[in-house]
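Lab notebook: predicted structure, single chain.

Context: the supervisor wants predicted structures on file for every construct in the current expression panel, including those that have not yet been purified. This is the next one on the list. No modifications to the sequence; it matches the entry in the shared construct table.
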Amino acid sequence: MIQTQDIFPVKVATTDSIPVADIPQLDLKQLASLSWSEVMDNVVDGLINFALHLAVAIIVFLVGRFIIRRITVGLKAVMLKRKVDRSLATFILSLVKIILMFILIVTVIGILGVNTTSFIALFASAGIAIGMALSGTLQNFAGGVLILLLKPYKVGDYIEAQGFEGYVTDIQVFHTVISTFDNKSIIVPNGPLSTGSINNYSREKYRRVEWKISLPYGTDMAYARGSILKILASDSRIVNVDDLNGTSTEADNAPMAETEKKQCFLKRFFHRHRAKYEEIASEPLAISVIPRISHHASVALKGLNDSSLDVRVRAWTEGKDYWPVYFDLLERIYTELPKAGINFPFPQLDVHFDKSTKESLTND
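Prediction complete. Output recorded below exactly as produced.
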């Protein structure tokens, strides 16, 4: 609020003997004792002082708004360059703009002479109350920020989480939309998603397909294995070991050459501790814990069942071809193995009779 002293700058001589509660009354008494010309001079001085403060506040507001606009534009350019998710970028820009505008408005009000302490305390109390009321929503918001920053999945990935399975169609700040195979849209809050387990089937480029085939006892395993591998090899979607690992190229050797260059630099830098450096340099680099795909399609005997031989068939394909490969090759195995002389067993039970039972059956 604008104080009376700003408009009527009257100096009041106060002593320790005058109570604080009597000071406003003393101001009014001295104000009444002034002449009309002195009152007008004080009013003019107060108005000029207020006008100067108002002009400074307007200038600060205009300059501050220009600076805020430049900050938001620069932040937007950085986010576009970093390829930040659009939903997160929009939210961050709005949040930064609101915070900066709040600081600017509080500063302008302070320049005008209004006490901002109670003003800030009121907003802080309101913020605490709103935060407690929206604790679950804020948890989803924090989870959405983590998901958009860390990217455990992206739009188009096929994931399984929170008991739901499907393709991610949209990632918002508060929730994620999953579309199932029967075209149902499941809206899952981001809070549980950010703290729970997520099975992302689309994260890796290649996936292993596995079939369980039952063969009758007496089957030649070498012949059956060759027949099944022939079926797998005839499908171009099955990935071979050479396609996955490949051979080293100049691009692959570039990081190693850069590493050797860094090692040479370190060797020159630590020439006073050459022995210690050689000991460190001889240690092998950290090996990735990610298992490499180092085998072709495989056919192995998994178990001996009551009526059949259980055979496990494995092959690698790209993630997008997983289900087409699984269903197509399962049908081909069913139709082509009998043509190769390999049939599929039925549940069977061998019954053995003793001699007395055979004689009784024969007499009957």
